[in-house]
Amino acid sequence: MKRSLILAAFLPLLVIGCRKELTCPQGEIDCGGICVDPASDPAHCGACGNTCAPTAACLGGSCAACATGATSCGDVCAVLATDPEHCGDCATACGPAQVCSTSAGVTACKATCDDGLTACGRACADLQVDRFHCGACGAACAAGQTCSAGQCVAGVQVACGATDEVVPLTAALGPAGTGRPVAAGPASLATSGGSVYSVSGYPVATLDVLARDLRTTVPLHVTTLAGSDLQAVAVHGGAVLVVNAGVNTLDVLSPEGVLLDELPVGDQQAAPNPKSIAVVGTRAFIPLSGKSDLSGQQVAVADLSGLAACLAETAPPACGTGGACDAGRHCIDGACRLRCATLDAPIDLLSVPGSLDAPGAPFPTRAVAADGRVYVALSNMKRVDDCGGFGPGWCAPAGSGKVAVIDTTAGDAVTVVDLGPACGTPSGLALQGSTLWVGCGNYAFTSAWPGRIVPVALGPSPAVGAAVDTGPVVPNGVVICGDVGYVPGMTSGQARTFDPATGALGAPVTACRPGPFGFEYVADLICTP
Fold first, then answer.
1. DSSP secondary structure string, 305-333?
2. For the chain, percent helix, then strand, then coil, each to nearest 5?
3. Sign for the pseudo-dihedral over CA of 29, 31, 34, 40
4. How far is CA 30 from each of CA 26, 186, 209, rounded to the nearest angstrom?
5. Neighbours of 111 (CB within 10 A)
6. CA distances from 259 to 127, 207, 224, 251, 340 (A)
7. Helices (H), 249-373
8. Ordered alpha helix ranges (H), 194-291
């Protein structure tokens, strides 16, 4: 089994596969096997199954308030842009043969709907953006959700590893609907087109393909992969790329979740332990944390130039006896498929000046890429035997965290940025323009290495800015969506926003509820507006 960089954060992964009777947090109730807050859940307002009208909101266990986008007109919540009984304002009612239509910001009673609008009864709705008629007349989105291209979406979605679900939240981290269950504890999320992809870390390795439209609550497809330790998922060139640390491979799947290729990364005898993935052009860069005897400690490089041909093949020949295939193909799930990727020479980090503080090792984890450069978080950890213990494993930071910068425009030349004493065990990276934000976790959550986020101004001579303490939300990464930053929490189940321009933090918000054994943590967060 792989060893987690942060041992305390690994504990939830040991138990989330087990099940016991559902116990809801204080203030929530069990409604059909899910925990809901009856004070604010419009589908279970005040009691299980008590559903508010689409134009009403649940406040204090009552459907008396109006939902966002609706206006109180006496005892009715009306959408003034489309309601023929309250067209434009509460006092204006359209005639029996008229519709209520809004065009260019002007709402009026008319004989027919304006161009681009659909008559839903006598209400004229834009099915692409109307959250009360999203994609079809009467198909309303849940509170906190918006309608985009006819789909109900939320500002962000979080992977709740302890409760095996992907939970939608507003951009401000408010509630935006019920979480959607996945096969096992989700470790990483990605989105592309109409799908959200979730990969599991334990106890089984699965890729769950979820609809971007939150009204579809069950996975569209579930693929079971080898091992039990999927670390990361990304989408590139129409393919879904999965980092599989259980069997040390880069797995390539179709958008629908069909396994197309399994590429071994690193020296398999050395347990390379791949952690994440970043793509530049047709090359994928995969940090390999290796293990405690200093094997690994590289960045694997995969050539993805065969990806298009691999994806285009719709009817590969069947495998022969014993999995036999013609040259250039290999047997995957009974089909002789083309190779989607090949392995190039790895980038050795142990030999890079400044990548470690003795007696530590780099232990690369997260990676992001932009403008021909790949940024890799280096945790700079000591081994157990260097801490006076024995056996395999990592024990504590040997010094401050670092970031390796791989310049693909200069022959993959590597330089190192030292993040300084404010950052121990970097746990996530996010780019916004010329600034790299680093989420800094800690080891065993000691006061010596508190949770922080640190900005790095990029350029010929990168400059590390002032660290921002994140309080109870110890970073399990860092994410930027537009002009809003997010810090998902490693153990508290909380997340918080921050302003990338100023570093100002929003209040901690509970994003993931406790699992059956009391653990709670946010494994990942993605932008899905």
1. TTHHHHHH--SPPBP-GGG---TTEEEET
2. 5, 40, 55
3. negative
4. 11, 22, 26
5. 9
6. 35, 10, 9, 7, 11
7. 307-312
8. none
What are the CA-CA distances from residue 293 to residues 296, 359, 389, 395, 506 (Å)? 9, 12, 14, 13, 41
Cis (ω within 30 of 0) for the bond into 203? yes
Strand residues in 121-236 grouped as ranges (E): 123-125, 146-148, 151-153, 156-160, 165-169, 180-181, 185-192, 195-202, 206-211, 221-224, 230-236
| Residue 66 token pair | 């109006």
**Residue 490 CB-half CA count within 13 A:** 30
pTM above 0.85, yes or no: yes
- Cβ proximity of 29 and 39 under 8 Å: no
Domain range list for the chain: 7-17+153-308+330-527
**Longest Cα separation, the chain:** 85
Per-residue pLDDT of 213-235, as tens digits, reads: 999 999 999 999 999 999 999 99
Note whether 114 and 101 are within 8 A (CB).
yes
Give pairs for 117-122: CB < 8 Å, separation 24+: 120/82, 121/84, 122/84, 122/94, 122/98
In 3D space, the residue among 243, 265, 460, 270 whose CA is nearest the CA of residue 366 turns out to be: 243
Which of 473, 515, 516, 294 is closest to 392 using CA atoms?
Answer: 294
Query: Where would I find the beta strands (DSSP E) of 333-401?
Result: 335-338, 342-348, 364-370, 373-378, 381-383, 394-397
Given a cut of 70, whether residue 161 has pLDDT beyond it is yes
- What is the distance between the alpha carbons of residues 351 and 303, in angstroms, rounded to a whole number? 23
In single-letter form, the type of residue at position 171 comes to A
- How far is Cα 9 from Cα 441, in angstroms, rounded to an integer? 10
E strands in 398-446: 402-407, 413-418, 426-432, 435-440
Q: Using CA atoms, how far apart are residues 78 and 86, in angstroms rounded to an integer? A: 7
Check pLDDT > 70 for residue 451. yes
Give the DSSP H or E segment for 387: none
pLDDT tens figures, 121-146: 999 999 999 999 999 999 999 989 99
Decide if 121 contacts 85 (C-beta within 8 A): no
Q: What superfamily would CATH give domain 7-17+153-308+330-527? A: YVTN repeat-like/Quinoprotein amine dehydrogenase (2.130.10.10)
